[in-house]
What does this fold into?
Amino acid sequence: MKVLRLIGVVGSIGSLLFCSFILVYNPYTHSSVDPDVFTSFTIMYLLPIMLAIYASLTLKHKLLIICSIWALPLSLYCLATPGVFKFLVIGPILLLIVGIVMLKNKRTY
It folds into this structure.
């Protein structure tokens, strides 16, 4: 379970850093991010990824699966866009896989 915890935490922190970098330094525009875009990304992507860090550390597989499903619609939308935004889908997919593997290897931990 330590490996799954490590994969979950690293995947969550990596997604969080990548999304934060994309929001602050958008490579396609030189202007700042609109407040509406920042709010929607915070609610639909950053908040579940931060909850996924907690879920990975405490080995709560149900919360991890819920967080990954919560972040999946926005990341699938970004997958359809060209450029670096398509890499935002890696985090929720990785967290979903870790959550499913934790669910299958259910032990009293």
Notes: The radius of gyration is 14 Å. Helices lie at 2-24, 35-58, 61-79, 90-104.
